[in-house]
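Long-time lurker. I teach an intro course on protein structure, and each term I like to show students one example going from raw sequence to a predicted 3D structure in token notation. This year I'd like something fresh instead of my usual example. Would anyone be willing to generate the tokens for the chain below so I can use it in lecture? Attribution to the forum is fine with me.
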Amino acid sequence: MLRTSRDARGIVTLTLDRPEAKNALSGELVAELTTALATLAADDAVRAVVLTGAGEVFCAGADIGEMRKAGSAPPAQNEADARRFAGMLEALERLPQPTVAVVDGPAMGGAVGLVACCDIALASDRASFALSEVRLGLVPAMISPYVMRAIGVRQARRWFLTGETMDAARALAIGLVHEVAQAAQLAALAARTMRALEAGGPAAQREIKRLIRHVTGRGEATDAAIQADTAGWIARVRAGAEAREGLTAFLERRKPGWARGDS
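-- Reply from a regular --
Happy to contribute to a lecture. Here you go:
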């Protein structure tokens, strides 16, 4: 599910490799990502980490079938599942080495959180993004701190509440991605970005990431509290009747009850 490659420069590429499921973030894939990130964090020879997806979709977000099962599980099990996802996001954002998301296709729901967690986000002109949770009766709880740091509160209000799909140009305009290239030029853009990162001192880059957290007022206790709060939030919401209807409707390929009158 997670394919890992490493070149002679110490640049590691993590590829979400579940194309038959649009690279949806199953529990197994989340666990693999978490383990890989922990290993990379402890490896001083790693210069940078690239996150991308196999096939035509970067990532469809959380695995909907598993989300529905988690919502029906006992509360403690439901919240534990959410905490594992929250822990993976935090591990990605706090990785000591520079991280680069390379997005060449749709990124939905939790996938937008992956993009926002990365230090640098690059997209092709055929990429698209949607904070689509609301259309399933859910909330973007665990990804919200990372996405809001990227796009700000005002933009978050719109995209969280509507669940609309935005193209790469809009994602660039609101700060979700740093640069957009034609699909055929995305690899060249990523290579150029890697060269720019290689020109910086690796120890200095690690310190810069710590510095940014410090000057924005973040600490271990506050980050842990936010993780716990947001995990509890999604666990509570997805156990509710509206989320159960939204997730079931998605799996049954129909509109949820609240949207039946829409065109």
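Some talking points for your students: The mean pLDDT is 97. The first helix runs from residue 27 to 41.
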